[in-house]
């Protein structure tokens, strides 16, 4: 099978995004994720197979080849170069489709298209190593440092994630590493957990900045459509004061926090 013929499961492709990397981006959302974060805003991305809403009105997931995806990505090539944008691979979890993800990153790089990935980093070290030459920016989720906390709310232990972040920190190349922490009230907003996050981040040489993202319940409607219960109904979006308080704690570790 050639690079162009490599197949994967795609949730959707969104063009003209300005929130998933520098400049104007085409975001390729892959389908399938080994995590089950209780606040997940895209529950339709979790299962690896095609899913249909309870009422049968909508299906999620399409098998595509690299050729299929790149046809869409190329449509905004002119805007990439003007805005400094490019292609972003998101999820789901792209490390769960390693061959397809690597083939897409290679294809974009061969055409001079800037690449970024959004990932939980729950995957194999060798998969990450293979991608490093073809990724300009890694956006990696750091949901929690305490393993038991991560397992309770995300369904998996986070030790492999922390290991992979440290592994990426040791790699050579021109890529950027940006960590993202979704701030979930009652989950990872305690001073104890924030100090653990700060301690972990201050030892990373390649960290550009840590981005603190406020929790929101935008995915709750899709849970209902899929006939699934949304477990974070009682959680409120953190206030601006709360976000500032958490940023101040993290900044005491001499890291840039956005």
UniProtKB/TrEMBL annotation:
From the Swiss-Prot or TrEMBL record, give the protein name.
Glycerol dehydratase activator
Q: Which PROSITE patterns match?
A: RADICAL_SAM
This protein's species is Acidaminococcus intestini (strain RyC-MR95)
Q: List the GO molecular function terms.
A: 4 iron, 4 sulfur cluster binding; metal ion binding; oxidoreductase activity
| One matching Pfam family | Radical_SAM
Asked if the record carries the keyword Manganese, the reply is: no
Supply the alphabetized keyword list.
4Fe-4S, Iron, Iron-sulfur, Metal-binding, S-adenosyl-L-methionine
Q: Which residues cross the membrane?
A: none
Every copy of the Radical SAM core domain together lies at: 19-254
Its cofactor is: [4Fe-4S] cluster
Domain of life, per lineage: Bacteria
């Amino acid at each position: 099978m050639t690079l162009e013929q490599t197949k994967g499961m795609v949730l959707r492709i969104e063009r003209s995004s300005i929130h998933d990397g520098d400049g104007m981006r085409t975001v390729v959302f892959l389908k399938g994720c080994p995590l089950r974060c209780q606040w997940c805003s895209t529950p339709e991305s979790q299962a690896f197979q095609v899913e249909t809403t309870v009422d049968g009105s909508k299906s999620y997931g399409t098998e595509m080849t690299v050729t299929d995806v790149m046809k869409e990505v190329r449509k905004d090539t002119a805007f990439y170069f003007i805005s400094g944008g490019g292609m972003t691979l998101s999820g789901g979890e792209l490390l769960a489709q390693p061959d397809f993800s690597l083939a897409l990153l290679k294809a974009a790089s061969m055409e001079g298209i800037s690449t970024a990935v959004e990932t939980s980093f729950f995957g194999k070290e060798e998969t990450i190593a293979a991608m490093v030459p073809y990724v300009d920016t890694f956006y990696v989720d750091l949901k929690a440092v305490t393993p038991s906390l991560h397992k309770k709310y995300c369904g998996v232990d986070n030790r492999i994630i922390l290991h992979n972040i440290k592994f990426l920190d040791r790699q050579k190349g021109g890529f950027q590493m940006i960590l993202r922490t979704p701030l979930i009230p009652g989950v990872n907003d305690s001073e104890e957990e924030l100090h653990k996050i700060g301690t972990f981040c201050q030892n990373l040489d390649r960290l550009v900045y840590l981005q603190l993202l406020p929790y929101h319940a935008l995915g709750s409607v899709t849970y209902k459509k899929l006939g699934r219960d949304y477990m974070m109904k009682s959680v409120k979006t953190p206030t601006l004061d709360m976000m500032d308080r958490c940023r101040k704690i993290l900044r005491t570790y001499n890291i840039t926090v956005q």
